[in-house]
Amino acid sequence: MKSISFATVVFCALTIAQTRSSEILVIFPTTAQSHYRVVRPLIHSLLDRGHKILAITNFPDAAERANLSHIDISGLKPHSKFKTNNNGIINTMKRVITNFNTYATILNHPTVAKLLESRQKFDLVIAEFFTSTPIFAPIATVVDAPIVGFCPMITFPWINEVMGMETTMSYMPSLLSNSTDSMPFFQRIVRQINKNHYGIQTESVIKTMANLSMIMTNNYHSMFLPFPKLPGIIEVGGIHVVDPKPVPQDLNDFINGAEHGVILFSLGSVVSEESLGADKLNNILDAFLRLKQRVIMKFDADKYKIQLPVNVKVVKWFPQRDLLAHPKVLLFISHAGMMSTIETIHCGKPMVAIPIFGDQIFNTKLLVEKQVAVAIEYKHLESDQLFDAINEALTEKYAIKAKRLQQLYNDRPHSPLETAVYWTEYVIRNKNESKELLKSQKVHLNFYQSNLIDISAAFLIPLIMTIYIIQWTMKRLRKH
Ligand SMILES: *[C@@H]1O[C@H](CO)[C@@H](O)[C@H](O)[C@H]1NC(C)=O
Ligand SMILES: *[C@@H]1O[C@H](CO)[C@@H](O)[C@H](O)[C@H]1NC(C)=O
Ligand SMILES: *[C@@H]1O[C@H](CO)[C@@H](O)[C@H](O)[C@H]1NC(C)=O
Ligand SMILES: *[C@@H]1O[C@H](CO)[C@@H](O)[C@H](O)[C@H]1NC(C)=O
């Protein structure tokens, strides 16, 4: 323990001397609270180190803090939860495109518009790296600051391309690998919005983000997969996880009364619990009824008339991270959202994953490959299937693998938060060069150049001509 705090002190002392107090603009436009939870610890660490922050967010902190101000954009875009069905690629893309037009309204928000008109300067912009980035990245030019992206997911389409590397599908799984189908459509909307708001027109969606100096991602190689990556992709997976707090009294009593341990159930905050339907809920409760363990369910059951088994406690919200850390909690039944996935790994517990949409499917695949989770397809969520999956995941094999994954996840030179602070200040310190420092030169090359087509052509054309001339000469010679 001593050596860790010593390292932290040295780390802080090394960097604090070099970076003066800076003005930082944070833009996190999506209405998913889990995304903002990823950047909030970084914001507070940067404040601790004397920086000033203005955050454009749907989730301003309740408590006031010196040098932190917010532009509250909540209510501009209603938070639409995902239904438990109908999340195919077409519907997901439709949603992305509808969201785009709503995101554009943020730029018209009186306070945001005033800020952009004022030509106030900042030292850094931190922008959520998500579907909205193509229309928010140009703000950096308006406020004359370098810009870094912060991706709340493990990875996201374009992440590599923006830093100057191709995503190779064969071994670098992508979240929305089919999203390229709707690219032309997407491109049109982005161009229109950027032209109207900034007078900027770029040739592609990737190019709208070309000024990003760096992207932080919610990943760590030992936690998921080791990808080839450029220096500008900084892994800060687990940044949102803070030290556990004691569990509230009523939940603690329920846990302590459980002779055979406790299982947690939650579908997170972006899946609509209403859309689950009575039959699926009954399947779930029927499986729980047959367990000897106790179950704590995070579920809004108001819409349902249900008879709860005695071993089940239903609450509208629970302190998930603190519960997962409890030694009597054995297993998490989860939609495998990003936050839940990381908190489960952090606490070394196995999972029964019921992915519903988006990155949940991707996270589940990775957890299953690591043998720390048993997956159930939502459409096959029957009582027997769930019961069997729970019992499978409760076997020792999963507990051992989960503990091992926890160790691999924790084995790092610096905590995710220290890493994020260091690289954020790195970009501020090296503002003038930052656009080029961490990316590959590929960002400046077009398709022909980066695939060496021009070079190949320079060699191939004389070669082909020579062969042709030889053949022609031979033909003439044979004729004579
Ligand atoms: C607020 O920022 C200023 C520098 O701009 C600094 O001098 C002051 O100590 C900060 N206040 C707090 C409470 O961090
Ligand atoms: C990138 O930065 C340059 C220089 O500040 C600016 O001219 C250009 O418009 C920016 N591009 C985008 C897409 O924001
Ligand atoms: C992507 O497209 C392929 C072929 O069109 C299809 O087989 C696959 O299921 C799609 N993936 C997703 C996630 O929709
Ligand atoms: C960055 O560029 C500005 C303007 O060209 C210059 O005044 C400043 O000294 C440079 N900063 C560093 C650290 O080189």
From TrEMBL:
Catalytic reaction(s) noted: glucuronate acceptor + UDP-alpha-D-glucuronate = acceptor beta-D-glucuronoside + UDP + H(+)
Listed GO MF terms: glucuronosyltransferase activity
Primary location group: membrane
GO cellular component, one term: endoplasmic reticulum
Bilayer disposition of the protein: Single-pass type I membrane protein; Single-pass membrane protein
Membrane spanning residue stretches: 452-470
Signal peptide location: 1-21
InterPro entries reported for this sequence: UDP-glycosyltransferase (IPR050271), UDP_glucos_trans (IPR002213), UDP_glycos_trans_CS (IPR035595)
E.C. number: 2.4.1.17
Keywords of the record: Endoplasmic reticulum, Glycoprotein, Glycosyltransferase, Membrane, Signal, Transferase, Transmembrane, Transmembrane helix
Pfam families assigned: UDPGT
Subcellular compartments: Endomembrane system; Endoplasmic reticulum; Membrane
Family, as annotated: Belongs to the UDP-glycosyltransferase family.
PANTHER family assigned: EG:EG0003.4 PROTEIN-RELATED
Protein name (Swiss-Prot/TrEMBL): UDP-glucuronosyltransferase
Species of origin: Macrosiphum euphorbiae
